Amino acid sequence: MKLKVEKGDITTFKIDAIVNAANTSLLGGGGVDGAIHRAGGPEILNSCKKIVAEQGGCKVGEAVITSAGKLPSKYVIHTVGPVWNGGTNDEAQKLANCYINSLKLVIENNCKSIAFPNISTGIYHFPKEKAAEIAVETVNDFLQDHKNIEEVIFVCFDDENFDLTNNELKKLDQ
Ligand code: AR6
User: Fold this and answer.
1) Which of 5, 38, 123 to mutate to test the pocket of ligand 1 (most atoms within 8 A of CB)?
2) For the residues 74-83, what does the mean pLDDT come to?
3) Residues 110-163: tens digit of each pLDDT
4) Is the N end or the C end of the chain the one with fewer CB atoms within 10 Å?
5) For the chain, which residues make up each domain, given as ranges?
6) Which helix (H) or strand (E) holds 3?
7) 20 CB contacts (<8 Å, ≥6 apart)?
8) Calpha distance 143→151 (Å, rounded)
């Protein structure tokens, strides 16, 4: 299986690219964003600042790529998940776009492996079950058409996300 789920801290993963659940400013924050900038050091923030100067941040559902500073991965892909607003603001499509646009950057940068956190399920309060369904379905669909991606890992920080993501992956086997 190219799709896997693991529990842990995404900053420790030695993989081509890890994904950051950032915000539109790209200038850091709490949650996994804070952990990535803390562990990766100032190089990541400096790269983000250059992107901000060029294009003025990152819109919801879009993604940008930077170096990974001191992290063991080669790149950090920063994507901006939607804030959950009851589901009436196209949150599901916006979350799917985060996965699609991150995977497009993987292809464009000749990467073979990527690790995702459970985007939007922390501070942005997207319901975890629905988010897991969107994450697994979207990535699985993308991989059908892009056979050169070898490994996608969903890195879950909490047991609930781990169990929900595992359940979604099991559905693909049936
Ligand atoms: N490794 C893997 N997953 C993690 C880690 C980690 N080190 N730390 C937290 N998580 P969140 P969001 C999980 O809140 O909901 C920031 O301030 C966490 O348990 O990081 O997309 C940004 O700057 C949860 O399951 O991101 C934005 O302002 C998941 O990562 C805002 O938060 C996402 O939680 C983005 O909110």
Assistant:
1) 123
2) 98
3) 999 999 999 999 999 999 999 999 999 999 999 999 999 999 999 999 999 999
4) C
5) 2-172
6) strand 3-7
7) 32, 33, 36, 76, 77, 78, 79, 117
8) 10
